[in-house]
TrEMBL record:
Residues 2-131 form the Photolyase/cryptochrome alpha/beta domain. This is Deoxyribodipyrimidine photolyase. The record marks 304, 358, 381 as: Electron transfer via tryptophanyl radical. The lineage of its organism: Bacteria, Pseudomonadati, Pseudomonadota, Gammaproteobacteria, Lysobacterales. One of its GO terms (molecular function) is DNA binding. FAD binds at residues 222, 234-238, 270, 371-373. Its cofactor is (6R)-5,10-methylene-5,6,7,8-tetrahydrofolate; FAD. Belongs to the DNA photolyase family. The keyword Lyase applies. Binds 1 FAD per subunit. Gene3D superfamilies: 1.25.40.80, DNA Cyclobutane Dipyrimidine Photolyase, subunit A, domain 3, HUPs. Pfam families: DNA_photolyase, FAD_binding_7. It comes from Stenotrophomonas terrae.
């Protein structure tokens, strides 16, 4: 009887799991293991919202394994040391895992693979996270892409979805002692995440349900409605993708099977968003410094404003006096999520009107988003700030008032997350400081002026940009 450890990481599912499938097909008895080692993530150990989701996702994975007569073996500490301990305890002769692609984890995994093989252990790693490996696509000159459109055009010429695979109906596994999940300390001590679970169902079953809800609902009209924050116009699959509770190719297979003349544009529009996810990992692989530094070196000369804790805190807590910005930041705190259009607006306001370095925003999102993903987070903030690949130019400064009027025309999103403004007339909910008497009468606790004057902030940002060109 041969024994193999299947090391679960960012692939918390049983279906479409290449590492698990390979170990089973090789005839191994399985030791399903999770090793908690946030210290090995470098400067980007998971934030509080990610930890909270991870607790629930591991709980669901363990329940799935127990239904098959197995259980998830949870350990904590140095990954290599814990794998060696598991090998010694079980007599395992092989270790299987699905690859991770962060700058800190890639060299760690390479060292573990090399070390275990030197000890005579069979090691296999697989792609369980992406449609394309980050190094798989290259320009005609053989280098990495910095612009999305040619990257995606190349990707579509190589479009071959992996076959789907079902979860095992049974699992020949070995039981080993492990830690209780509570010992990992993943749940926020103050119960800050309590409201999250009204909106989310972590785990593989929750991911599948979210896909079905999207396919039957928001997919219809996706291209037109994905920018409207007052409705469910997006898939809400991003946290499930981040934790590997669903494979991107299962999503693509599901949507491809629904193609019709009336749905092609919406399906293509969503699959293109999966392409942006691929592009972000391509960028982080080839430019690993971009989680911390500007991709565009010109912005090393940019005159960012020194961080002012009071102003930054007002932005974080949704007290800027600009309703669409405050609505987004409050949605984030309450649900661990923010609509993508609003992410662009709050980011633009921070980096341009407030002229604070995008790293302040990236760090806050990292700690508060349930879909916090190093590649997407880094690319997104650099895109907003104008410092990254294929970025919105810095001189493109979103006006949050006109953006709110365009994408939240009835102010439903604003009224939901900034309820003290709901009693104001519609026109006053977009820029309440322009209606001081109404504001004083109906929302006396709301800021009477924006944190930054929009016109002055825009002019100062453009002047700073001109100086660094």
């Amino acid at each position: 009887m041969s024994i193999a450890i299947v090391w679960f990481r960012r692939d918390l599912r049983l279906r479409d799991n290449p590492a698990l499938q390979a170990a089973i097909e090789a005839g191994h008895t399985i030791v399903p293991a999770y090793i908690h080692a946030p210290q090995e993530e470098g400067a980007w150990a998971p934030g509080a919202a990610s930890d909270a989701w991870l607790h629930h996702s591991l709980q669901q994975l363990d329940a799935q394994l127990r239904a098959l007569g197995s259980a998830l073996v949870v350990r904590s500490g140095d990954s290599m040391a814990q794998l060696q301990a598991l090998i010694a305890e079980s007599g395992a002769e092989a270790v299987y895992w699905n690859r991770k692609y962060e700058p800190a984890t890639q060299p760690r995994d390479a060292a573990i693979k090399r070390g275990l093989r030197e000890q005579g252990v069979q090691v296999e790693s697989h792609n369980g996270y992406l449609l394309f490996e980050p190094w798989e696509l290259a320009t005609l000159q053989g280098g990495p892409y910095k612009v999305f459109t040619p990257f995606w055009r190349n990707a579509l010429t190589r479009w071959r979805l992996p076959a789907l695979s079902d979860a095992p109906g049974s699992l020949n596994a070995i039981a080993l002692p492990g830690l209780p999940l509570q010992a990992l300390g993943l749940q926020p001590r103050l119960g800050w995440d309590g409201g999250f679970w009204e909106h989310w169902q972590p785990g593989e079953a929750g991911a599948q349900e979210a896909l079905e809800v999207f396919a039957e609902g928001a997919l219809n009209g996706y291209r037109e409605q994905r920018d409207l924050p007052d409705r469910t116009g997006t898939s809400l699959l991003s946290p499930h993708l981040h934790f590997g509770e669903i494979a991107p190719w299962r999503i693509a297979h599901t949507l491809e099977a629904m193609r019709s003349a009336g749905r092609d544009a919406d399906i293509d529009g969503y699959i293109r968003q999966l392409g942006w996810r691929e592009f972000s990992w391509h960028l982080l692989h080839h430019f690993p410094q971009t989680s911390d530094s500007n991709l565009n070196p010109r912005f090393e000369r940019f005159a960012w404003e020194p961080a002012q804790p009071a102003l930054l805190e007002a932005w974080q807590q949704g007290r800027t006096g600009i309703p669409i910005i405050d609505a987004g930041m409050r949605e984030l705190w309450a649900t661990g999520y923010m609509h993508n259009r609003v992410r662009m607006l709050v980011g633009s306001f921070l980096c341009k009107h407030m002229r604070m370095h995008w790293q302040h925003g990236a760090r806050w999102f990292w700690d508060t988003l349930v879909d916090a993903d190093l590649a997407n987070n880094s690319m997104g903030w650099q895109w907003i700030a104008g410092t990254g690949a294929d970025a919105a130019p810095y001189f493109r400064v979103f006006n949050p008032v006109t953006q709110a009027q365009k994408f939240d025309p009835q102010a439903r999103y604003i009224s939901r997350w900034v309820p003290e403004l709901a009693a104001l007339p519609l026109k006053a909910r977009f820029a309440p400081w322009q209606f001081p008497q109404l504001l004083a009468e109906h929302a006396p606790s709301y800021p009477t002026q924006p944190l930054v004057d929009l016109a002055q902030g825009r002019d100062a940002a453009l002047a700073a940009y001109q100086r660094c060109r």
